[in-house]
């Protein structure tokens, strides 16, 4: 269904409001993940609840102004453009980006000791423009109860602040250029469904038909009531609560079954709400392949694979799966990319002039941006061939994530510890890299540790939103460019602000751990010089080939239920956390499709959108109340 807008233009005031809202989201994400919940939260999900909450407020304000003043304050395109800008701000400030970067650049000089010998093996290789080195500034950062806003502190933070803000801006411009090149093929030719955009589209629709549906309000009431009861329980423990978490691993006590380890059955309402829009074969594959991975662990314990201590190498299998999905995405898009090259370097019809100009700008941005990233890494100490290899693998993974989000709307895609640095280290071993290259590679851990907060799929979904409401795509691209330039400095500011106020030692444990993890990883590279990790490489290749095989099976057999996306995603941490919700929504959707057909499914979508919205509205309100009154 196409949802039409009463105005297709993104106005300048919307960009301005988006710029004003972005630092609020940077601050909010850093606060709730670093201070309140002390761990990953909003930024680690495909649909970021803080930005949807913000959108709901804008919708209400716009509606009231129109009703009282008889004039549209913000049209649907404006609201969605602001939503898109806030998404970028939230991602960059998120658990898998700047929340790793700031600990990374503040850790070495504060924690260098004679025992770890960092004064000889690490500090001489660090650059003043990318690392905080002043001890007094670091003392204020770690202990807190001080101010970020004094001349001395700002003078020591300015160079790292500007350097990493520039790096992030270039990285986001490169991602946007890739999205511009692939968007038309995936959206208009392949007609991918982009399930994640469903709630923002309906929530921002000018006709308010969405809120007149009783099933929407039933869904809001269901999840809102659960949120209300459980949050009251958090404040008053004597108050009853609705249990949503069960640990199944405790029931497997005898070997080899106890090798299953941590196995939560977690009823995550947001996963259920968003998961209802995910195809059945994907939902099945999510929990099925999670069981397969756990089964491999049990099998390894039963057989006694002593020579394979990391069996079944789940991270490596997932890594190979993501690379395969990225290669498949490129293969599917190859003809479109060839046509772009022909248009860019050939004669252009007058009616295609604007489109070709956009493609030319995207290609130039991609080339110059990649060159700038490689030069920055060279400044960090990395060899050129390592930098180029890193970003080639990085782009392939980004395309894989963007494709899976566009095609099936997966609520998660973390890929912990399976990115380019891990792949390169497994293939070549640390012995084949210079020490300065290893130092430079460690700096990139904040974009490579996990991929939940990556902004690229959000950029692509923004372009889809513009297409769905028939808005001017150029306005959305301008909004994304502005957001890409500003998101980095805003996120770094927010993180530093919290740490100087509360002290990094008093925030989320991961604020310290991310810094430790980064440089402990580096130290393991230099202390244990390795060659090719044959086992890891083999299992990465196995993951690649299994994914290709599953894709071939999906293309050839109509009955095939084993989706390669489910396999690639299920070997990582977040699927263990959320598989129970996917099992529940798979079963619900299967029964609805079996007994009510497509008509029943379409009716039920309103309930599940309401379920998702209710958790966001009630949960978001409780979070703001809790922060305001220091309830948790």
Give a description of the structure.
With 632 residues, this protein is an all-alpha fold. It has one domain. Helices cover 70% and strands 1% of the residues. It is built from 24 helices and two strands. Strands 1-2 form a two-stranded antiparallel sheet. The protein is globular. 48% of the residues are buried.
Please specify the SSE layout and strand pairing.
Elements: H1 12-36, H2 49-69, H3 76-92, H4 98-106, H5 108-111, H6 118-121, H7 135-143, H8 151-189, H9 198-204, H10 214-235, E1 245-247, E2 264-266, H11 269-275, H12 280-303, H13 314-345, H14 353-380, H15 384-408, H16 420-428, H17 435-443, H18 445-448, H19 456-468, H20 473-502, H21 509-527, H22 534-556, H23 564-569, H24 573-629
Antiparallel strand pairs: 1-2
Helix pairs in contact: 1-3, 1-20, 2-3, 2-9, 2-24, 3-19, 3-20, 4-20, 4-21, 7-20, 8-13, 8-14, 8-15, 8-19, 8-20, 10-24, 11-24, 12-24, 13-15, 13-22, 14-15, 14-17, 15-19, 17-21, 19-20
């Amino acid at each position: 269904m196409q949802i039409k807008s009463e105005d297709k233009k993104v106005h300048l005031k919307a960009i301005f409001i988006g710029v004003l809202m972005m630092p609020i989201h940077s601050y909010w994400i850093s606060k709730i993940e670093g201070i309140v919940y002390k761990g990953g939260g909003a930024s680690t999900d495909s649909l970021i609840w803080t930005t949807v909450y913000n959108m709901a407020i804008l919708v209400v304000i716009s509606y009231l102004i129109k009703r009282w003043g008889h004039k549209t304050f913000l049209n649907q395109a404006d609201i969605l453009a602001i939503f898109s800008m806030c998404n970028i701000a939230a991602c960059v400030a998120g658990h898998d980006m700047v929340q790793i970067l700031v600990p990374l650049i503040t850790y070495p000089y504060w924690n260098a000791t004679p025992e770890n010998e960092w004064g000889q093996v690490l500090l001489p290789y660090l650059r003043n423009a990318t690392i905080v080195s002043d001890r007094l500034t670091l003392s204020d950062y770690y202990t807190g109860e001080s101010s970020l806003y004094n001349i001395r502190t700002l003078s020591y933070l300015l160079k790292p602040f500007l350097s990493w803000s520039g790096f992030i801006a270039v990285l986001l411009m490169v991602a946007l250029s890739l999205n511009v090149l692939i968007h038309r093929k995936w959206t208009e030719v392949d007609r991918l469904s982009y399930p994640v955009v469903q709630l923002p589209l309906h929530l921002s629709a000018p006709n308010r038909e969405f809120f007149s549906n009783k099933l929407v309000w039933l869904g809001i009431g269901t999840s809102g009531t659960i949120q209300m009861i459980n949050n009251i329980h958090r404040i008053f423990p004597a108050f009853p609560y609705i249990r949503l978490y069960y640990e199944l691993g405790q029931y497997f006590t005898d070997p080899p079954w106890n090798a299953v380890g941590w196995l939560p059955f977690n009823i995550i309402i947001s996963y259920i709400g968003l998961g209802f829009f995910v195809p059945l074969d994907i939902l099945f594959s999510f929990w099925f392949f999670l069981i397969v991975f756990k089964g491999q662990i049990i099998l390894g314990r039963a057989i006694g694979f002593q020579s394979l201590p990391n069996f079944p190498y789940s991270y490596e299998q997932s890594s190979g799966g993501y690379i395969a999905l990225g290669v498949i995405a490129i293969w599917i898009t190859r003809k479109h990319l060839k046509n772009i090259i022909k248009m860019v370097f050939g004669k252009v019809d007058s009616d295609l002039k604007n489109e070709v100009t956009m493609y030319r700008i995207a290609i130039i941005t991609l080339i110059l941006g990649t060159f700038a990233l490689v030069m920055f890494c060279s400044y960090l100490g990395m060899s050129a061939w390592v930098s180029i290899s890193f970003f080639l693998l990085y782009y392939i993974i980004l395309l894989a994530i963007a494709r899976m989000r566009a095609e099936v709307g997966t609520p998660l895609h973390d890929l912990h510890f399976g990115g380019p640095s891990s792949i390169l280290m497994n293939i070549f071993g640390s012995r084949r890299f210079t020490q300065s290259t290893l130092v430079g590679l460690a700096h990139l851990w904040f974009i490579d540790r996990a991929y939940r907060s990556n902004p690229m799929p959000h950029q692509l979904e923004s372009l889809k939103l513009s297409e769905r409401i028939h808005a001017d795509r150029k306005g959305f691209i301008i909004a994304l460019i502005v957001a890409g330039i500003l998101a980095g400095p805003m996120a770094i500011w927010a993180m530093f602000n919290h740490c100087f106020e509360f002290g990094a030692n008093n925030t989320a444990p991961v604020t310290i751990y991310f810094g430790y993890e980064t440089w402990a990883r580096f130290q393991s590279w230099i202390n244990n010089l390795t060659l090719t990790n044959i086992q890891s490489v083999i299992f990465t290749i196995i993951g690649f080939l299994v994914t290709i095989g599953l894709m071939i099976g999906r293309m050839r057999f109509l009955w095939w239920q084993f989706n390669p996306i489910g396999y690639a995603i299920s070997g990582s941490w977040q699927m263990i956390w959320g598989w129970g919700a996917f099992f529940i929504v798979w079963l619900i959707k299967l029964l609805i499709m079996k007994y009510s057909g497509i008509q029943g499914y379409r009716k039920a979508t309103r309930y599940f959108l309401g379920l998702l919205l209710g958790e966001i509205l009630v949960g978001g309100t409780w979070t703001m109340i809790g922060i305001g009154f220091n309830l948790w």
